[in-house]
Every structure is written in structure tokens, then in C-alpha cells.
Amino acid sequence: MAPFTISPCSISDGPTLGHINVHAFWTDPTWVLIWHGQTAEHVALQGARRMARNLLTDPAHRRHQKAVDVASGAVVGFARWILPSASTQAAAGPHPETLWPEARVPAVSKKRADEAEREYAAAEWSFDDGLAELDRPVTEMKARLMDGKAYLREWGPAGPWTGKVLDHLAVLPGYRGQGVGTMLVESGVRAAEEMGLDVFVLGMKAGLGVYRRVGFELVEQIVQDDSRFGGKGEYGAYFLVREVGKRGL
Q1: pTM
Q2: Mean pLDDT of the chain
Q3: 91 falls in which pLDDT band (50, 70, 90)?
Q4: Fewer CB within 10 Å of terminal CB in the chain, N or C?
Q5: pLDDT given for residue 249 in this prediction
Q6: Which residues, listed in sequence order, are joined to residue 5 by a DSSP beta bridge?
């Protein structure tokens, strides 16, 4: 039996996924800088309060899966995917709401959704946006790539974009190097193959090995010096694409 399994997420996973998210990204020295003296545990607690609401956001396009340690039953990683937008003028292609239903977070009662909204609003999620200067060229590059390549286009003169986005991948630090991230990405890529969709990811250096093993190709990268903000001198953003039918699974 494999040591980990991939399962759908539900709103009850929110607190756990919030903790995983923060502790996973806390290993990135540039990301830590925006929290200005706050501890990882404090930020994780706030992230846990926000995640249930995030799981319920945009159910038409967002899909979530978690990785579970079979031996302990603990959730150790998760991925969030964004499906392409639908066009009311498009005659071909299914509506995104009908795609990959097994990875869609189940709907909850209005009472439960309201509770999630209150928890989200009550969370202390205050960070320094002074590093936005570093994110600006990354955002511009992403926009250029998505506008300049037909397989990264949503809707426009070239027709519908035939891809989906790996929006989020987080694995607890203690479980890295054990294939958890690869399993999560492979699961989404298999679904993309079944749907006939290319996949785009804006990744970090730590994830490059995972993406390349599953057939992604690096199409652009931006590496900036973040030392003037207190970083270690390397803030990297890596843009990758995996086309339908690409070997790697």
C-alpha cells in the first residue's frame, strides 16, 4: 500500500489546511519577511481561521485535493487548482462547474457558510506589503505569458484557453522528499489529461523538480535580489506549462 493517498477536501479540513499552508511557505525566506516578527504558529492559527471560507470560494472554478498519511491519518499536503473560465458565447466545451466534480468542495448550509465568513473576518491577517515591488515584475510576466500564448489564453481572439492553473501546492516540511507533492500534482495532471486541458503553474524553486518530473516545461523565470528587504539575495519565480499528452506520468 502506498504511504499516502489523495482525497477530496471538505470545509472541515479548513483549519488543518490553513496550518499546512503557512508552515509550508514559512520555509521560503522571502515570504517570512512580510510578517515582521510574527511567529509561524501565530500566522498559522490565523490562516486556519481563514481557510474554511477560502475552500468555499468560487466553487465553479476551484478544485482542491489533500494528501493523507495512511499510517497516521494526518493530512500532510494539499493542492488547489483553477479551471478555465466559461463563456456564455462559446458553443463548444462543458461548463467548468461540471468538470472534475470529485475535487469540488461540497456545498454547506448557509449557517455553516456564515460561520466560515465570520471566522475569516475575525482572523488577524496583517502583513507588510513593502515587498510588492518584487511581485510587480512577476505579475507582469504572468499577464504577458497568459496573453501571448494561445494555450494560456482564457477567452479572446484566439478562442478559449485550453488550460487550467495549479494555483497552490503546499506540503508540510517534515513530509517533503517523500513524494507527497508529486502525488498531488500527478493527480491534477491526470484530471487535466482527461479534460483535454493544458496546465500552467507559477512555481517556486523548491517545486521545480516535482513539476519537471510530471512533464512541465519551464517557459520563463525571474530571479531578483531581495537582500535590500532583508532576504538572502534570491527571490525566484518560475513559470511552467504542461501541454496535453506530455509524457511524465
Answers
A1: 0.88
A2: 87
A3: very low
A4: N
A5: 62
A6: 68
Phi-psi category of residue 65: left, alpha or beta, with phi > 0 → left and psi -120 to 50 → alpha: beta
CA distance 229 to 125: 20
Rounded (10°) CA dihedral 210, 214, 219, 221: 0
Between CA 221 and CA 115 the distance in angstroms is 40
CA neighbor of 240 nearest in space, from 204, 210, 205, 201: 201
> What would the grid cell of residue 51 be?
481557510
- 79-114 burial code (b ≥16 CB/10 A, e <16): bbbbbbebeeeeeeeeebeebbeebbbeebeeeeee
**DSSP letter assigned to residue 70:** T
Task: Return the SS3 of 113.
Answer: helix
Which residues share a beta bridge with 4?
69
Closest CA to 130 of 243, 30, 211, 244: 30
Grid cell for residue 47: 490562516
Q: How far apart are CA 169 and CA 64, in angstroms?
A: 10
Average pLDDT over residues 6-17: 98
If residue 112 lies in a helix (H) or strand (E), which one and from where to where?
A: helix 110-122
In a 13 Å sphere around the CA of 156, the CA atoms on its Cβ side amount to 12
pLDDT in tens, 226-235: 999 888 899 9
Q: What is d(CA 217, CA 227) in angstroms, rounded to the nearest whole number?
A: 29
Q: Tell me which amino acid residue 125 is.
A: W
